[in-house]
């Protein structure tokens, strides 16, 4: 049986060579949120970085997000926020913490709870254990 890490890094959503679908926006109507543990996550991140990390450096709130992707319904819903900031200059629009070249989350061991809890339908159906 394939492990979650093998699926997520090499066969995301069942597509060979595809990776990081839950960490990228691409052309889908998808948002990396909502996040309920923003303060705790910022504390962990600040500790790791060795300096205070500001909320707006990491998260996108409704007012900003709805303008970023005005044609995507999920980004127009206030309940989708706060969301993790994405790199809008990259074609895949990855989370700012996703290393697209190496297919890894750079904050995996301190990631927010929403990220820890997320498991796509493909992962749930094709592995015996979860992705935590």
Give the H and E element order: HHHEHEEEHH
Q: Mind telling me the C-alpha Rg?
A: 15 Å
- Report the portion of residues in β strands: 5-15%
Taken together, the total number of domains comes to 1
Q: Total number of helical segments?
A: 6
Overview of the molecule:
- With 132 residues, this protein is mainly α.
- The protein has one domain (4-126).
- Helices cover 31% and strands 6% of the residues.
- It contains six helices and four strands, in the order H-H-H-E-H-E-E-E-H-H.
- It has helices at 4-10, 38-49, 55-58, 62-68, 113-117, 121-126; strands at 59-60, 83-84, 98-99, 104-105.
- The strands form two sheets. It has a two-stranded antiparallel sheet with strand order 1-2. It has a two-stranded antiparallel ribbon with strand order 3-4.
- Strand 3 and strand 4 (104-105) form a beta hairpin.
- The mean pLDDT is 89.
